[in-house]
Design a protein that fits this description.
With 64 residues, this protein is an alpha+beta fold. It is 30% helix and 39% strand. It has a two-stranded antiparallel ribbon. α1 runs antiparallel to α2. It starts with 5 loop residues before the first strand and ends with a strand.
């Protein structure tokens, strides 16, 4: 942003956290089928799943 003329830049992070099987379809979309996904399914079944997805929001003022 600095290279494009912005000043007063701020950045926030918002994180979504899942600890149950609700996120398994998203994980399947990202990673596809296979051993890794099978492991995540087992973690969810055993109440040991933890998935965190950070979203970054940056804002600034254009210094014209």
């Amino acid at each position: 942003m600095l290279d494009n003329g912005f000043v007063d830049i701020t950045v926030e992070v918002h994180t979504i956290v899942w600890t149950d099987a609700a996120c398994l379809p998203m994980l399947a979309d990202i990673a596809g089928e296979g051993a890794w996904l099978d492991g995540q399914v087992a973690r969810a079944r055993d109440d040991r799943l933890f998935v965190a997805v950070p979203m970054f929001l940056a804002a600034g003022t254009r210094a014209d």
